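pasting for ref
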Amino acid sequence: MADTVTPQGILAVCGFLDVSLDQVLDAGPRLVAVLCEVRDPGNAGTVLRAADAAGADAVVLTASSVDIYNPKAVRSTAGSLFHLPVVLGADVGEVAARCKDRGIGVLAADGQGQLNLDQLQDQNAARRLGAASSVSEYALESPTAWLFGNEAQGLSEEELALADHRVAVPVYGAAESLNLGTAATVCLYASARSQQDGGTPQPGRSS
């Protein structure tokens, strides 16, 4: 009945919780995490948990991503699977197009991205504080869908092309990169902080 050596001794029967993309978009989301071909159940669960903590409105998994009902994935969410809507089996192209139609900006987390997340946050903070001549390439307080890629290959060129901007989380030490869960947490919190501090303008360049 359990797949762990030392289970907690509790058994529960639950129905599936996933919802349709229509349900998510009709609710007017401000922050959405999109997992593109994320295969590891622990990573998927960790991102879902981080999205919940950051106040995201939904998590979307593409058709080739891991089953979020995998026991390891469920455990990794630490209960967050029950807190926010999850869409399964989505087509990333459709998700990006429909988000843009609803005025939701699409950002791709990309280690080689042209925008530096730290600099973008500084630009947004200066703009919101009314600094003279302050410009930000993207208003982080805008409704936003973040695209996060496969653990080994990241986002494909086709997936990157769907985004309004490619955003890199800077690495200041000797590490080659951040793992998926950590990078997703940093990106989601950057949007969440701006959305908590500011209004909700239309996505895109702001000055």
